[in-house]
Amino acid sequence: MCVPCCICVSTSEVVVVERLGKFDRFIQPGLGFIICPCEQNAGTVTFRVQQLDVRVETKTKDNVFLTAVVSVQYQ
Questions:
Q1: Which of 9, 19, 32, 75 pairs with 41 at a CA distance of 20 to 30 A?
Q2: What is the Rg, in whole angstroms, of the alpha carbon atoms belonging to the chain?
């Protein structure tokens, strides 16, 4: 017996759906449906931009140590 279930996907995310253990599709933001015994939510992927601040210390040719903060933005 197949029972449809509702999934609410928030903005800037997509849901990965597996059918019988294999990748089937992505569910876009909004209201989505899966068939419960056959399909399952395998996870979510976020499209938000995240930032990582890294402190780097380096030595120049004249033996001066410099410290710089590098910001890396990734999705």
A1: 75
A2: 22
Q: How, if at all, do strands 39-46 and 13-19 pair?
A: antiparallel
DSSP states along 26-73: EE-SEEEEEETTTEEEEEEEE---EEEEEEEEEE-TTS-EEEEEEEEE
Tens place of pLDDT per residue across the chain (75 aa): 678 889 899 998 999 999 998 999 999 999 999 988 889 899 999 888 889 999 999 999 999 999 999 999 987
- At 47, which amino acid appears? F
The position carrying tokens 């015994």 is 37
Report residue 16 CA to chain centroid gap: 11
